[in-house]
Design a protein that fits this description.
The complex is a heterodimer of chains A (about 525) and B (about 450).
Chain A lengths: L3 E5 L42 H6 L3 H11 L6 E17 L2 E19 L2 E7 L4 H12 L14 E2 L17 H18 L3 E19 L3 E20 L2 E12 L7 H16 L10 E7 L6 H8 L4 H5 L20 E4 L20 E6 L2 E2 L6 H7 L7 E2 L8 E2 L3 E4 L6 H6 L3 E14 L4 E13 L2 E6 L2 E6 H6 L1 E4 L4 E3 L4 E4 L2 E4 L1 E4 L2 E8 L3
Parallel strand pairs in A: 5-7, 9-16, 15-24
Antiparallel strand pairs in A: 1-16, 1-22, 2-3, 2-6, 3-4, 6-7, 7-8, 9-25, 10-11, 10-15, 11-12, 13-14, 16-17, 17-18, 17-19, 19-25, 20-25, 21-24, 22-23
Chain B lengths: L1 H16 L4 E17 L2 E19 L2 E7 L4 H16 L28 H4 L3 H16 L6 E19 L4 E17 L7 E8 L8 H13 L10 E7 L1 H12 L4 H5 L20 E3 L22 E5 L2 E2 L6 H7 L11 E3 L6 H6 L3 E13 L5 E12 L2 E14 H4 L3 E4 L9 E2 L3 E9 L2
Parallel strand pairs in B: 7-12, 11-16
Antiparallel strand pairs in B: 1-2, 1-4, 2-3, 4-5, 5-6, 7-17, 8-9, 8-11, 9-10, 12-13, 13-14, 14-17, 15-17
Classes of the chains: A alpha+beta (about 525), B alpha+beta (about 450).
Chain lengths: ~525, ~450
């Protein structure tokens, strides 16, 4: 209802409210060459070529007819979006792999656009008759003048940031079962106080095709997976729980023993330390955000506010700040689909535009919004490949992909030494932002107090609240330890969830309001 | 819709033929239309029609749940075959069973009034006319520097059938119609917004456009020139808008899923007094025209009114069949329906007038909680209360505490539950909550 957007992780089993969950771990990879051009597999996309024709009989002639129908009342442009998503999961609880799930979504959405007006309809049946009916409903947004133009087809080629030939739908379930059984055994062996272990392996194989009225056909197949481990420990009467997870566009085989062991170690260590955790004093304090998952700050404090739909409508607190200095020169912030195997990577967006790396803030100066095709036309710029949708049941809107900050000049230790009393945060569950007001929050699961320039007592379960432009202007030091996070982040906007990721070097923010007692 | 029933029956037969000893299946179809209106024209109009076949399969003591929107007969058969093969690879779980057929009996027989034929007759033009009115009314508020008005209207209907291999069969049909307006204004560099809304089963029950706009304008006024207060413990008066969210957060670990995972501060607490006498909470599945009214739950068990808290004493967990089996308890239901907190006698204004130093909380932003221990921390905004009067608007503050003692300090419940929500929770006053600001 309200104009708010959030990000949440999915590691704790869902209870009454959809926003709850947790996630994430810091990837200890150093010196990611984020500023240099990435080197992808440079080849045209062919593997899912004609997927919808071969499997569901959707021919080019049908596509042409439905597109023509969508613009038949004078719509300026539009597109068809086909989707076949096969998802599944297996879960272990009480030492047993005792439940599984699988879901199929098949359908197509039709959009017809007049400047900033959108007509949209979808169907779960891919017969010509049903698709024509959807196109007719979408077309109704247009005034009923002469039919809009549909250009001849061209195949859109693009680079690959994940393996489009991989197919989770062909996974040998027995292997998945034995993987999560071994995770349970190894986890329980780590600590006698463990009273519950929950392991969930889930996958989503999302195969899409976009046909735009300006002539592009683009196909992609996206192999998402999430591995989540929850641990509950009990010492005397006291219980604590925590989690660790990995979410990527990658294969089952990418879950090597070393990576799985890292998930186990993090879940166990991050739970153990909670028995010693204290609450900080509430108030405005300096906050050091650790590398990796602290990118949640960027996602909330600036990322949503730079989505161009909010700006073309002048609803964002950043609407009037383009080309202005919003942060210190140490701060460069990007949003990119070009991070190999990242959960936020994209080959092509859901409007058929190849994705890119977009520099949002360059050395402290605001330089770009995140555009879909509607906002790009409004501003007279090229779309940034940011038009995304949850499924064929939704029309696309500007969204983030992998939002990260580039390295600064400082050592991590320098940041901590600069703080007399404050907190250090390294593990997060979720965040939220009010786009127009600029107020944002994020929730800290693990961190430490900083006292007299040293990390001291662990802290837990604290919300942080600030205002986007204010916080950006208070980033006083950026460290040189940038890393990408590979947690199971999902971003929510306008009721649509899309997978995203984050990256961050450690930073010092001179003051934010920290929850406490 | 006999073909829907037919699809369901065929799927159950196929599952049994292919090796499932038991199954529970449902088939649902929903359609809706939504219009968003801005700057005197349609911003977007979306129509949808979606179906889903969902099955819980019990194969050789093993369990999985599956769904598909691809309902071509050949696809369904292939899908079920694959699902059964997947289920066979799991480990047996004796707690996975269908409900005891005794629990299917005594289903509520009267009309719940959740289907309004008038909704089916609504047209896009009706939606547009309502949106236009919302926009016009909002723009009349020239006392505020309003920069944007977005109005929306949505209506739809859904129908579903459910059956089990041990004798359950049920169906339900419902409609809804909803409208909302979001209004933004300029406040220095900030562009805060707020909203008003209505949502009903019957289109004739919707609140008027005047009411919805008045709600948005009232809450928008609380967002202007906001500041932070100093950190300290204060009395919080939660508007009914956010009171239901506070109750929902508290009840989160009351559900079987959390209890089975040992992630709940309610473990072994049934029968104990956990909150103040004012926490008197009931689940009311049979409310006429209720947004969550229903006659059977997702296991097929007949819904009955239930007491969740009686004068602060926890009376029951929310247990579906699986969780109850896991915990060796009797199932209650896994689904909350219309949650009713017994209202108090006084209005919100009277409640506020009694507070010396506190905050009237009108919005909660983000935050989370630890379901094992009850620790929580959330962003809040609203208005400071000084000597019974609303004074400075506040924002960008955090409230932090623990659910296991917070509700003992529930000192007043208002008389103003909202009927636009499944959670009919009046405004609440809770004393002595840690609030961080400057």
């Amino acid at each position: 209802m309200n104009r708010r957007d959030f990000i949440a992780t999915s590691a704790m089993a869902a209870a009454a409210l959809p926003l709850f969950g947790c996630k994430s771990k810091q990837k200890e990879v150093q010196e990611m060459p984020v500023a240099t051009p990435e080197t992808p597999v440079a080849q045209p996309l062919t593997a899912c070529n004609d997927y919808f024709c071969k499997n569901f009989g959707v021919t080019q002639a049908m596509i042409d007819k439905v597109l023509a129908k969508a613009l038949s009342r004078g719509g300026q442009w539009g597109e068809l979006f086909f989707e076949h998503t096969r998802s599944g999961s297996v879960q272990l609880l009480d030492g047993k792999v005792s439940s599984s799930s699988a879901t199929i979504h098949l359908g197509m959405g039709v959009r017809c656009v007049m400047d900033d007006q959108v007509g949209f309809a979808f169907t779960e049946s891919l017969t010509l008759e049903d698709m024509m009916r959807a196109a007719e409903a979408a077309a109704a947004i247009a005034p009923g003048t002469d039919a809009g133009k549909v250009d001849p087809r061209k195949v859109r080629e693009f680079k690959q940031w994940y393996d489009i030939n991989y197919n989770w739908d062909l996974l040998d379930i027995a292997k998945a079962v034995s993987l999560i059984q071994s995770i349970d055994k190894k986890t329980r062996a780590k600590d006698e106080s463990i009273v519950q272990v929950i392991v969930n392996l889930g996958w989503v194989q999302r195969t899409i095709m976009v046909n735009t009225s300006d002539g592009f056909n683009a196909e992609d197949s996206q192999p998402y997976f999430t591995l989540r481990l929850n641990v509950v420990m009990q010492r005397g009467d006291e219980k604590q729980s925590n989690y660790s997870s990995i979410g990527e566009l990658n294969s089952f085989e990418s879950l090597t023993e070393a990576r799985v062991d890292e998930v186990i170690n993090k879940a166990v260590e991050d739970t153990r330390i909670l028995f010693e955790a204290v609450k900080p004093k509430g108030g405005e304090w300096p906050v050091v955000l650790g590398n990796g998952a602290s990118g949640i700050l960027l996602h909330e404090a600036i990322g949503h506010g730079l989505e161009a739909d909010f700006n073309r409508k002048e609803l964002s607190i950043f609407s009037s700040k383009m080309n202005q200095k919003v942060a210190s020169e140490e701060v460069t912030i990007c949003d990119s689909g070009l991070i190999e195997n990242s959960r936020g990577a994209l080959n092509v967006d859901d409007e058929g535009t190849p994705t890119q790396r977009t520099v949002l803030v360059d050395k402290g100066v605001l330089r770009s919004y995140l555009h879909d095709k509607i906002s790009a036309k409004h501003y007279g710029v090229e779309p940034t490949g940011s038009g995304r949708r949850e499924s064929f049941k939704n029309f696309p809107i500007p969204r983030m992909r992998v939002t990260y900050m580039e390295n600064g000049p400082h050592e991590f230790d320098e940041l901590i030494k600069n703080v007399k009393y404050g907190i250090f945060c390294r593990k997060f569950l979720n965040g939220q932002v009010e786009i127009g007001q600029g107020d944002y929050t994020f929730y800290v699961k693990n961190g430490y107090l900083i006292e007299d320039g040293k990390l001291t007592a662990p802290i837990k379960d604290i919300n942080i609240i600030g205002n986007g432009p204010d916080t950006l202007s208070k980033i006083t030091m950026v460290a040189n330890d940038m890393s990408y996070d590979n947690g199971t982040w999902t971003c929510g906007k306008a009721g649509q969830g899309v997978p995203v990721s984050l990256g961050m070097p450690s930073v010092l923010v001179s003051a934010i309001t920290v929850g406490g007692v | 819709m006999s073909d829907m029933k037919q699809i369901l029956e065929n799927a159950m037969k196929t599952a049994q033929k292919l090796g499932a000893q038991n199954a529970r299946a449902s088939y649902s179809h929903a359609q809706s239309l939504s219009v968003s209106w801005r700057k005197n024209k349609i911003e977007n109009m979306a129509s949808s029609g979606e179906s889903q076949l969902w099955m819980a399969l019990y194969v050789d003591g093993k369990y999985g749940n599956y769904s598909t929107s691809d309902i071509r007969p050949e696809s369904i058969d292939a899908f079920i075959e694959k699902c059964i093969a997947m289920t066979r690879l799991l480990e047996p779980e004796p707690a996975r069973t269908l409900a005891d057929p005794e629990r299917y009996k005594d289903r509520y027989g009267e009309d719940l009034e959740i289907y309004d034929p008038a909704v089916a007759a609504l047209t896009p033009n009706d939606a547009i006319e309502f949106c236009k009115k919302l926009e016009e009314l909002a723009l009349q508020h020239t006392e505020m520097p309003i920069t944007d008005v977005t109005a929306s209207y949505e209506f739809g209907s859904s129908e579903s059938f459910m059956a089990t291999t041990n004798g359950f069969a049920g169906d339900r049909k419902s409609t809804y119609a909803a409208a909302s307006v979001e209004i933004a204004l300029t406040d220095g560099e900030k562009k805060p917004s707020d909203y008003g809304y209505t949502q009903k089963r019957f289109v004739g029950d919707m609140r008027t456009a005047e009411d919805i706009v008045a709600e948005a304008i009232r809450f928008l006024a609380y967002r202007r020139s906001s500041q932070k207060l100093a950190s300290k413990n204060r009395t919080l008066v939660f508007d009914r808008r956010v009171a239901s969210s506070m109750i929902a957060k508290y009840l989160q670990p009351l559900f079987g899923g959390s209890l089975v995972m040992k992630q709940s501060y309610f473990i072994d607490k049934v029968g104990q007094k956990l909150a103040s006498d004012l926490l008197d909470l009931h689940d009311e599945p049979w409310l006429k025209r209720g947004l969550s009214s229903r006659t059977y739950d997702s296991d097929g068990m007949s819904c009955k009114p239930a007491t969740i808290f009686e004068k602060g004493t926890l009376k029951q967990y929310m247990l579906d069949v699986y969780s109850a089996n896991k915990l060796s308890l009797t199932p209650t239901t896994g689904n909350l329906t219309n949650l009713v907190l017994t209202p108090g006698k006084r209005s919100l204004d009277e409640m506020i007038a009694d507070v010396k130093d506190g905050i009237y909380v009108t919005s909660i932003l983000g935050g989370n909680q630890d379901n094992v221990r009850g620790d929580f921390s959330h962003g809040i905004s609203g208005v400071a209360i000084e000597n019974g009067k609303l004074t400075q608007n506040i924002a960008e503050m955090n409230m932090t505490g623990n659910h296991t003692d917070l509700w003992k300090r529930l000192v007043e419940v208002g008389n103003d539950p909202r009927e636009d929500s499944s959670y009919r929770i009046p405004s609440l006053r809770i004393d002595d909550v840690s609030v961080s600001g400057t």
